[in-house]
Amino acid sequence: MAALIDAIDVKRKMFVELENIPYSCLDVEISTPTARGGQTLVRLKMRNLLNNSVFDKTFKASDKFKEPDMETVDASYLYSDSDGSYFLDQENFETLVLGEDKVGDALEMMVEGIILQINKFNGNPISLQLPMQVELAVTYTEPGVRGDTASGGVTKAATLETGAVVRVPIFIKEGEKIKITTETREFAGRA
């Protein structure tokens, strides 16, 4: 039987199962009453890992959650088509498929061969986690204009090999590889 977790013990980025649905904890707020006999309450902000919806709910500190049958595996991105995106499990070389609804705009940060993590619930792939940073080539950007200063924080739009458009410093040229922070989609430096 899966282990039970008290609501008071739930931490950020932890996985819990509620009503047979896996959730990722985004934020925890514990309110301890000052009055005698008052109950400690735990407010959890959680993301449903099956449909990506987010909700806040308050639980008693003693409420219990099941530990979900979650597994995170390293996988490399292969390709995408109308049926979804295909990944190769790096341990058993099984092909994993995630639908467009599960991948979303993460495709803008993925090139063939990138290693990322796939979350599996009860053995089925349900979501992916991109690495903190990715290296992508700039396919188009306006040339920097003489007199613009790099130290002044001047930026310009750059189109990347995946089709994503990000703001980069004025000195970045077409063909250069740059690092992008996947969470914020911001320039992090030259590769």
Count of helical regions: 1
Strand % is over 45%
The chain-level mean pLDDT equals: 89
- How many β-strand stretches? 16
Helices and strands, in order, run as: EEEEEEEEEHEEEEEEE
Helix content, binned percent: under 10%
Main sheet: strand order: 9-8-7-10-11
The CATH architecture of the largest domain is Roll
Distance between the termini: 47 Å
Low-confidence stretches: none
Here the CATH topology of the largest domain equals SH3 type barrels
The helix-and-strand class reads mainly beta
From the structure above, extract its key features:
OB fold (Dihydrolipoamide Acetyltransferase, E2P); 1 helix; five-stranded antiparallel beta sheet; mainly beta; 53% strand; SH3 type barrels; 191 residues; 2% helix
Describe, in plain words, how this protein is organized in 3D.
With 191 residues, this protein is mainly β. It has 3 domains: 4-66, SH3 type barrels (Roll), CATH 2.30.30; 70-129, Nucleic acid-binding proteins (OB fold (Dihydrolipoamide Acetyltransferase, E2P)); 133-190, OB fold (Dihydrolipoamide Acetyltransferase, E2P). Helix content is 2%, strand content 53%. It has one helix spanning 100-103, and strands at residues 4-6, 15-18, 21-31, 41-48, 54-60, 64-66, 70-81, 84-89, 95-98, 115-121, 124-129, 133-141, 155-160, 165-169, 177-181, 186-190. The strands form 4 sheets. The chain has a 5-stranded antiparallel beta sheet with strand order 9-8-7-10-11. The protein is flat and about 70 Å long.
